[in-house]
Design goal:
There is one protein chain. By secondary structure, the protein is an alpha+beta fold. It is 17% helix and 37% strand. It has a 17-stranded mixed beta sheet that branches. Strand 6 and strand 7 form a beta hairpin. The protein has 2 domains: 224 residues, Jelly Rolls (Sandwich), CATH 2.60.120.1440; 35 residues, no CATH class.
């Protein structure tokens, strides 16, 4: 009876283990605050390094935060700030399906010998597929003020992919149309719109540079850049020069003297005196 109980317990434990969520990868690096939501967790928990990732896990990064992780030995993935990504399973062990709800995701795939691995990114109704190289996918949102009092409504402004690697093509599919994005090119689409033909990165260099930098976890966390629509001409940059503190103090001093002696004319202070 004891032996039978042990065998039964062993079989039950094995069945439960096999029926549990499949391990998909691991976290390699974290910057700032990144949270993970899992089916059996009551609340999202803060991610730490060397953290296992399972099917149906969701990663969400806060402002000035990011995370590096993998879903296969040949992959490296970088989630940028203010981003949310869900890890989905696939019927084929030779591929992974990820869903990017918002933000940026960089994918780097180095093919292993005699092994092909594909990563599919579902983003805003589109699908990005790649097997080798390096590319960044983005989902840019915008907040719309409601006509009646209430919370803001967030909608997707555009979705796109930048192939900034040196090898490998990226398939960008939307509205049953596929655009091939070669190294050095990018493509973009809006909701319910097929992707545009790929254009050179230099045609939207400021935007492309910003997108790629968001997933660079080594950058200073306080560096931020305004983001604009890559299909619209960017607004001119307005430079504001701050007035030197010494010069401000000098002006205040002259104003005080003028108020105390309104009938007295005083020669203006020299530039050297004002700094």
């Amino acid at each position: 009876m004891t032996m039978l109980s042990l065998v039964t317990a062993s079989l039950l434990s094995s069945c439960l283990f096999e029926s549990g969520p499949r391990l998909m990868g691991n976290v390699a690096m974290v910057r700032g605050q990144v949270y993970l939501a899992r089916t059996h967790l009551m609340h999202p928990e803060l991610v730490t390094q060397a953290y296992p990732l399972y099917v149906d896990d969701t990663l969400e990064s806060q402002s000035q935060s990011g995370i590096q992780f993998s879903v296969h030995p040949s992959t490296r993935l970088y989630l940028g700030p203010n981003s949310r990504l869900a890890i989905h399973d696939s019927s084929d062990s030779g591929q992974a399906v990820l869903a990017l709800d918002r933000g940026t995701l960089r994918i780097a795939i180095i093919p292993q010998e005699d092994q092909v691995f594909a990563v599919h990114i579902l983003a805003g109704g589109s699908r990005v597929t790649m097997q080798e190289g390096e590319a960044t996918v983005w989902v840019l949102e915008e907040r719309n003020e409601p006509a009646t009092p209430g919370p803001y409504v967030t909608t997707i402004q555009n979705v796109g992919v930048i192939n900034h690697g040196t090898r490998g093509e990226v398939a960008f599919n939307g509205m049953d149309q596929t655009v091939v994005v070669r190294p050095g090119f990018l493509s973009v689409t809006a909701p319910n719109t097929p992707p545009v033909q790929a254009v050179a990165i230099d045609a939207a260099k400021p935007f492309a540079t910003y997108i790629m930098q968001t997933t660079d976890l080594e950058r200073h966390p306080n560096e931020t850049t305004a983001i604009t629509d890559p299909l619209k001409p960017s607004k001119p940059v307005v430079t504001v020069t701050a007035e030197p503190i010494a010069q401000r103090d000098c002006k205040k001093k002259r104003a005080k003297i003028h108020r105390s002696k309104p009938g007295t004319e005083k020669a203006p202070a020299s530039e050297t005196e004002c700094g």
